[in-house]
Design a protein that fits this description.
The structure holds two protein chains of two kinds.
Chain A lengths: L2 H13 L30 H15 L7 H7 L3 H11 L3
Helix pairs in contact in A: 1-2, 1-4
Chain B lengths: L3 H23 L5 H19 L5 H24 L2 H4 L2 H18 L4 H9 L9 H32 L2 H31 L21 E4 L8 E2 H16 L6 E4 L3 H13 L4 E3 L5 H7 L5 E4 L9 E2 H7 L17 E5 L9 E5 H15 L7 E4 L6 H14 L3 E2 L17 E5 L1 H10 L11 E5 L5 H11 L4 E6 L3 E6 L8 E2 L4 E4 L4 E5 L9 E9 L5 E6 L3 E4 L2 E4 H10 L3 E10 L3 E9 L1 H6 L5 H12 L11 E4 L13 H9 L7 E8 L2 E7 L19 H16 L5 E9 L9 E8 L4 E9 L5 E12 L7
Parallel strand pairs in B: 1-10, 3-4, 3-5, 4-7, 5-6, 9-11, 11-12, 12-13, 23-24
Antiparallel strand pairs in B: 1-2, 7-8, 13-14, 14-15, 16-17, 17-18, 18-19, 20-21, 22-23, 25-26, 26-28, 27-30, 28-29, 29-30
Helix pairs in contact in B: 1-2, 1-8, 2-3, 3-5, 5-7, 6-7, 7-8, 9-10, 10-14, 13-14, 15-16
The chains are: A mainly alpha, B alpha/beta.
């Protein structure tokens, strides 16, 4: 687990005031919103999505496309989000 | 002729007299002269009985009867005339008429005398007056019959054949008597099953009950038994006291139901407005008490002037007259305070007329079940349901009531040999069904009422298993009084009291009009209703239980019911929360299956289980985001679960370092059961080989909880003293009681462990602080 992944998880927990969950409980490849067929996933809802988008923007200095489908892809999992941030934060 | 055989012999002759005479004339060819010997013998028999008569009057009456028989006998003998022989049945009727009729003018009536020989308890029964009236009527009916019978018998003597005379007096008249006997027996059975002792409270007078009638009792109290004489005297004494003082409104709080009822009746009868309050916290009394108000109570009160009922009764200011009697129910005023399920306690103005009308309705619907029972209570008589069922109803119906509440379900054991009415609540019945392991051996199953909140069907069923009777639920509120009733065995549907007219208000809530609601437009409750044509209805949750979470409407009971559907949940309360966003939070008490299923599971996995289950039915946005698993939901003293208490629980962020198992919040007091797991950070650096909770953590925990639940100021100004008497160990639940005196800005705390009975046991630590109220509140 990379440092970036852990930081993202911390931001998710902190910004959404999630209870009973630690970064270790979040599976890197599992969906952030809803759940996959294995039942993994944070199960966050659309209100959380808005909140999380703002938090990620603030913490990592990245912006997201206004095209909904594209953004959705970036938020598919912690891994996907980390990849997007790694690509966009510096350059 | 004192032997039994003699008595039977002569009674037989007396009864068979018409037949014997007929046979004598018809078959045995006896002359009237010979037959007159039978009359002589009967006269002799009555003469022997005469000596046993109790009073001179009775002797006098019997003497006249004997003389008349003798005259008939002699005339018949000397004239050898059959007419006089035939007169005997007429004489018997007239004699009985005299006997019965006389007691109508010198009560108690003959029938009542006989009845009280049979059942001595009539004299101290509240229905004695009603029984007396009934017996007098029966006596009257008999007198009427004897007049009729004597008339017909006389007619048969002169106008009818020997055969007809014999037939009427020897058979038909007896059949008529038998018919009256049976008819009276049937009527009596019907009347006996009816509550006859009801008198409206405002119509009670000195002689409404026999002086020896039992009013209240309590085996736990010395001098606990009070009779009607005591009651009248005590009400009169309190009236003398009240009427000698200028205070008009009086605040009333008495723990003892007897003192409460005495004081309330004295206030009503002397035209003093009564403010009935369950809350006797200094701060609350201060808030409602204007300078001209009096405060009558039965327990010492530290916060200013209060009058003790016991002192008033002991001092007995009086001019020697008994002041007790009717009052005008449409002028007698009261103020009740709601128990505040959703908000702060609210004052509700009442005219006594409202209670009186409701009592009438309750007696009409339930009264016949109460005959010869005693009233017990597990609820507070300062709230409307307790007031009606455990104070006013007993007084209006003459049923004796116990002076102190039943606090523990196990106390029901002491009622197994009694016929009881128990005014109870869902909270008590829940505890009963959880604590009792085998059915009580009631000689006569108690009638249990439940009100104050919905009674879960499984609790009702368990209560029936334990007591032998389904509890009767009453639905009502302080503002409306009783609205409807139901028993869970018949499902969830409510049957309204006849005087309550139901309709659905614009917002879908139930509107009630009745003669105990003053407003002509009725009262609209906060309960969403489905109303049927016959007036019966189903409740579908509070209207304030429909909330909007991020623009999405959701019914809290719906979420709660879905969670219960998992079969793992015993009790649950879902509350709306707001912060960065709006969300729902669920406080859950797992049932046995749930505890088994999740034994040792991480909290996150339990949350996920319920979350996933709910997503089958409701949207993610309105599915609870935060979860707490408690041993019991927090209830106030009336057994109500308040939304704001649950919300306060969620305002305190969940921490892996400690867990709240149970809590209870009353004004200025928080009692909480806590556990600090072995994995808690709090033990770090302190005795790793022997973990115990550091003092600084204990103090910090007190402040965190006090700020969160008791609205205590943020900053500490002084720590007074703390005493540590025992260690708080990992995974061993400890209790913490925090009291906050807002005036002194003082917080006191006490950690302790529970003993085996569930009572506060060994002290672990205690202390107090002063807060700095100038700073902004935390």
């Amino acid at each position: 687990m990379s440092d970036l992944n852990t930081r993202i998880k911390e931001v998710i927990i902190e910004s959404l005031e999630l209870e009973d969950i630690t970064p270790a409980d979040i599976v890197d490849s599992a969906p952030i919103f809803g759940k996959n067929e294995k039942g993994e996933g944070l199960g966050l809802d659309s209100i959380d999505a808005l909140e999380l988008g703002i938090a990620i923007k603030d913490k990592f200095g990245v912006t997201f496309s206004t095209v909904k489908e594209e953004t959705k892809k970036h938020f598919a999992s912690v891994d996907a989000l980390a990849a997007y941030i790694a690509e966009h934060s510096e350059g | 002729m004192k032997s039994v055989a003699g008595k039977v012999f002569f009674t037989a002759i007396s009864v068979l007299y018409p037949l014997i005479v007929y046979c004598g004339l018809e078959f045995w060819a006896l002359s009237p002269r010979r037959l007159s010997l039978i009359l002589l013998a009967l006269a002799f028999y009555h003469f022997l009985n005469l000596t046993r008569s109790a009073t001179r009057l009775e002797r006098g009456r019997t003497s006249i009867f004997i003389v008349l028989i003798l005259i008939c006998a002699f005339v018949a003998f000397f004239l050898d005339n059959i007419i006089f022989i035939k007169f005997y049945p007429v004489l018997v009727s007239l004699s009985l008429l005299a006997f019965f009729g006389f007691t109508l003018f010198r009560p108690p009536s003959f029938v009542f005398r006989m009845a009280s020989l049979w059942d001595k308890s009539i004299h101290s029964s509240p229905s004695r007056n009603a029984v007396e009236r009934y017996c007098r009527n029966v006596t009257l009916v008999w007198c009427g019959f004897f007049v009729f019978n004597a008339t017909v018998a006389t007619f048969t003597v002169f106008m009818a054949s020997d055969k007809a005379w014999s037939l009427y007096n020897g058979l038909i008249s007896y059949i008529l008597m038998g018919v009256i006997f049976i008819a009276e027996f049937l009527v009596r059975k019907m009347v006996q099953n009816k509550l006859q002792s009801y008198v409206p409270v405002c119509d009670l007078e000195l002689d409404s009950r026999p002086g020896s009638a039992l009013v209240s009792f309590d085996s736990g109290l010395e001098d606990g038994v009070k009779t009607w004489d005591d009651f009248v005297r005590d009400v009169s004494t309190v009236r003398h006291y009240l009427e000698a003082r200028e205070n008009k409104p009086w605040i009333l709080h008495c723990e003892d139901s007897y003192y409460f009822t005495v004081s309330l009746l004295a206030m009503l009868q002397s035209g003093r407005k009564a403010l009935v309050t369950a809350n006797r916290q200094e701060a609350f009394i201060k808030e409602i008490k204007k300078p001209e108000y009096g405060f009558l109570t039965d327990e010492p009160f530290a916060g200013g002037s209060a009058t003790m009922v016991q002192d008033v009764l002991a001092n007995g200011e009086s001019d020697g007259t008994l002041r007790f009697g009717k009052f005008d129910k449409s002028k007698a005023e009261m103020v009740m305070f709601t128990s505040g399920t959703t908000g702060e306690p609210k004052a509700v103005y009442k005219l006594f007329l409202q209670f009186e009308n409701e009592l009438f309705e309750l007696v009409k619907v339930f009264g016949n079940d109460w005959v010869n029972r005693k009233v017990y209570s597990t609820v507070n008589h300062h709230h409307i349901y307790g007031l009606l069922f455990t104070a006013l109803l007993p007084i209006a119906t003459g049923l004796p009531f116990r002076r102190h509440r039943i606090d523990f379900p196990t106390e029901l054991v002491s009622l197994v040999n009694e016929s009881a009415v128990v005014a109870s609540s869902p909270a008590f019945l829940k505890r009963l069904s959880a604590e009792a392991d085998k059915p009580f051996d009631f000689k006569c199953p108690p009638i249990i009422y439940s009100s104050g909140g919905p009674l879960p069907a499984e609790v009702a069923g368990r209560a029936c298993e334990l007591t032998g009777m389904w509890p009767m639920e009453i639905y009502g509120s302080t503002e409306t009084g009783g609205i409807a009733y139901r028993q869970s065995k018949n499902g969830l549907i409510w049957t309204p009291f006849e005087v309550c007219k139901m309709s659905v208000a614009e917002n879908g809530c139930l509107n009630i009009k009745s003669n105990y609601i003053l407003e002509a437009e009725g009262f609209t409750t906060g309960d969403v209703v489905e109303l049927y044509d016959d007036g019966r209805f189903l409740l579908q949750g509070r209207s304030d239980s429909i909330v909007k979470i991020e623009e999405k409407r959701i019914s809290l009971p719906e979420v709660e019911n879905r969670l219960k559907q998992t079969g793992l949940v015993q009790d649950v309360r879902v509350v709306p929360m707001s912060g960065k966003r709006q969300y729902l939070a669920a406080a859950i008490v797992l049932n046995e299956a749930g505890r088994e299923k999740f034994a040792g599971a991480a909290k996150l996995s339990i949350n996920n289980y319920f979350h996933d289950y709910l997503l089958q039915f409701i949207e993610n946005t309105v599915s609870p985001k935060k979860w707490r698993y408690l041993e019991e939901l927090p209830q106030n003293t009336e057994g109500k679960i308040r939304m704001r208490d649950i919300q306060a629980l969620f305002n305190l962020a969940e921490s892996p370092n400690f867990k709240i198992l149970k809590f209870r919040r009353e004004p200025g007091v928080l009692t909480v059961k806590l556990v600090f797991p072995t994995t808690s950070d709090y033990y770090d650096g302190h005795f790793p080989e022997f973990k115990l909770l550091p003092a600084v953590v204990q103090v910090d925990m007190v402040l965190r909880l006090a700020r969160n639940f008791l609205d205590v100021p943020k900053n500490l100004s002084k720590i007074h003293r703390t005493k540590f008497a025992g260690p708080i160990l990992p995974d061993v639940p400890a209790w913490l009681k925090i009291t906050y005196d807002a005036d002194a800005a003082k917080v006191s705390f006490n950690y302790y462990v529970e003993d085996e009975q569930g009572n506060p046991g060994k002290n672990l630590s205690n202390g107090s602080f002063t807060m700095n109220p100038e700073e902004s509140r935390g």
